[in-house]
Amino acid sequence: MAEELRIPKIGMSATEMTLNEWMFGDGERVEVGDIIYTVETDKTTVEIEAQVAGTIRPTGVEGEVYPVGALVGTIE
User: For the whole model, what pTM was predicted?
Assistant: First the structure.
């Protein structure tokens, strides 16, 4: 089963975040603890780590704004 990659809830008031950058391309192997993408609010930039190892399948677009909880990719 694929691990879903979602826009995280950061802070109390953030309802949306910008997907800044993917660190891996589609089909690349990631390991637990790898920084896989970054997101940004108006106050901070956050690095998101892989929670599982596998093949990354990003679907979110860099520079786009997404609501908290939006699906932006998977790790298979």
Answer: 0.90
